[in-house]
Each structure stands twice: as C-alpha cells, then as structure tokens.
Fold this sequence. Notes:
This protein has 189 residues and is mostly helical.
Amino acid sequence: MPKLWNETIDAHRQAVREAILDSTTELVEGGGLRSVTMSQIAEKTGIGRATLYKYFPDVEAVLLAWHERHIQGHLQQLAKAAAQPGTAVERLQAVLRAYADIARRRHGGELAGYLHQGEHISHAEQHLAQLIQGLITEAVQGGDLRVDVPPAELTQYCLHALTAAAGLTSTSAVDRLVDVTLRGLRPHA
C-alpha cells in the first residue's frame, strides 16, 4: 500500500479512537463511570457497535483508555504549572495547588479503584514525583525550603498530604491545605 494510504488509514483510526474517548468523557461526566455501556458509547460516537468492538473489547477497555488519556491531561496541566514564570517555590505552589484540585475532583468507587491500579498510574505517579522533587530540590538549593529533610521525603510528604483534598468541598479549603503543606516545607526559624 502507498505510504499516503497508510497515513490516511492511521489518521482515520486515530480520529475514531479519539471520538470514542470524547464520547466516553461526555458519558462519564453525565452519569458517572459505572453508568457507561458499549451501546451508549457507540450511539454517542455515531458508529455501530461492531465498529466499536474493533477498537475495544469491552467497556473496561474503553474506560481504561479514557482514563489513560485523562491522566495524561492532568500531567500536562501539572507540567504547565511547573513551567510558568516565578521562583521555584511559586511554581511548586502552583503544581501543588493544581494537584490538590485534581485530587478533589477525583472519581471514587470500585471502578475508579480498578482504573487507578493500571501501569499508566505508576508511570504518572513517578512522573509527578519527579516533577515535584525537581522543584523542591531547586527551592532547597535556593535556600527557600528546609534542608534537614531530603527532597525525596518532602515530595512524599506533599503527595500524601494533598490526598486529603479528596474530601474537601471548596477551592478555599484546597488553598488552605496547600498553604499548610507548604508551611511544612519551610525552614525552621
């Protein structure tokens, strides 16, 4: 087959896959993770169920692909916060704030527990830890954060402290949690 033909087919397949995941996003937002069915996904996407099954064997596979894309979006959001102008502490604060907000909006339940066990989660957690640890290391070297605790431990402190955002109901509560977490990183006077 000519290269152009292969590229066209690949682009079409990718477009259909993205449309399936976009439809799944709308369905999850509208009714939750557990309510999504293959029939709903096919109908919302505008494809037949047989076509959908060529891409994904079942709802869990669609949800896993949807979740992987969702997690990549979160990582991009966090990387953007880390890349903004400002001091290392300001950028760290922006990343922690974004992470806490993500944690606050996290889906719960059995299926969410299943989705959060995948290998993509391990990679995302490692990426997030490296991002935060890099900012902490930079801030420690600048004299803005405590030096008596290694940056790797401070990173774990931040990540674990901010999981508490899952139980918060307001952005002001998230801001307070991030502030308390950052205070724990400051050098003792």
